[in-house]
Specification:
The structure holds 2 protein chains of 2 kinds. Chain A is mainly alpha-helical. Chain A has helices at 3-11, 19-30, 34-56, 62-76, 86-103, 115-119, 138-141, 147-156, 160-171, 176-183, 187-206; one strand at residues 132-133. In chain A, helix 4 runs antiparallel to helix 5. Chain B has a single domain, classed as Arc Repressor Mutant, subunit A (Orthogonal Bundle). The chains are: A mainly alpha, B mainly alpha.
Chain lengths: 208, 98
């Protein structure tokens, strides 16, 4: 990593989410670079905010999740021996923080459907997913300023088990292996869920 | 609305995500590519899935709203200021799993 490369990471100019970004920031923070630590702590909170909003669907919980991500990142950043593992550690920490927040709620959105309900027919057989082609591409319908709001709504229609996969893989850009580590399922399972989630998301977007 | 019709289309549909991700081996990729060339239904589906994936990836550029960002920054500054006053980094009660 060049000096200028580090500077752009610290300034936040290099975008968010890439594994190498986190690794470089963590290494810099571990060697006492205050700006790198600040940037890392901001990144942790950004992840927590997006997770709260897009996966849990509860913006009200975001502050709690952000606080938790901030403190844990600060406490543990100096002790992580494998900087490359930091990103999966952060997402797992955020996921757990958000899920704890969600459990505190007395109700869940009525639209949540369990994975089993979606995949298994009453006779116990696995259902095939019928997918219709409306002939319209999602971006024919969803444009510019409406995109994020529409995508967020479409995401909320996905079963939570699918939503977290889409969030980690598509939006946050984690690899299949990283997603498997964060969620605690096999890579094959990640691929299967991702495929089904994409089909459902596509339908949701076309319906809007 | 045109449903995906044939069993062959259904069989290949499960590979479309891997195709979009560039994750198919040579034989599977060639077979799917050949099918997509002659099947408008699956071709449209593959294109549509690509665009869905692109939309999600575009959303990754989302920044924090200004008010949320200001609160996040204030939390960072408060934490670092309080730690520099005490001269101690907060100590964990347990090690992270990785």
């Amino acid at each position: 990593m060049t000096k200028s490369g580090n500077a752009s990471l610290i300034d936040g100019a290099a975008g968010h989410g890439r594994e190498t970004d986190y690794e470089a920031l963590l290494v810099a923070a571990q060697t006492g670079n205050q700006q790198a630590m600040e940037r890392l702590l901001m990144r942790a909170q950004e992840v927590a905010y997006r997770f709260s909003l897009l996966v849990c669907g509860h913006a009200d919980d975001a502050d709690d999740a952000m606080q938790e991500a901030l403190l844990k990142t600060y406490r543990f950043a100096g002790q992580i021996k494998e900087p490359a593992a930091f990103r999966t550690w952060l997402y797992r920490t955020v996921k757990n923080a958000c899920l704890i927040g969600r459990r505190k709620r007395v109700h869940e959105p009525a639209h949540m459907v369990s994975l089993d309900e979606l995949m298994v027919a009453p006779d116990g057989s696995v259902q095939r997913m019928d997918v219709e082609d409306g002939g319209l591409r999602p971006d024919d319908i969803v444009v510019n300023s409406r995109l994020r709001r529409t995508l967020r709504r479409a995401l909320q229609q996905l079963p939570p088990e699918f939503r977290v996969i889409v969030f980690l893989r598509e939006i946050e850009g984690l690899s299949t292996r990283e997603v498997a580590t964060v969620v605690g399922i096999s890579e094959a399972n990640v691929k299967t869920r991702l495929h089904r989630a994409r089909l459902l998301l596509r339908q949701q977007l076309e319906a809007r | 609305m045109t449903p995906v019709r044939s069993d062959r289309c259904r069989e290949l549909l499960v590979r479309v995500s891997r195709y979009v991700d560039g994750d198919l081996g040579g034989v599977e990729r060639r077979a799917l590519t050949a099918h997509l060339r002659r099947c408008p239904c699956c071709s449209s589906m593959a294109e549509s899935l690509k665009h869905t994936v692109c939309l999600c990836r575009d959303a990754s550029a989302t920044r924090l709203p200004p008010a949320v960002r200001a609160r996040a920054k204030a939390r960072v500054e408060a934490l670092l200021a309080s730690e520099s006053k005490t001269g101690n980094r907060a100590r964990p009660s347990k090690r992270p799993s990785r």
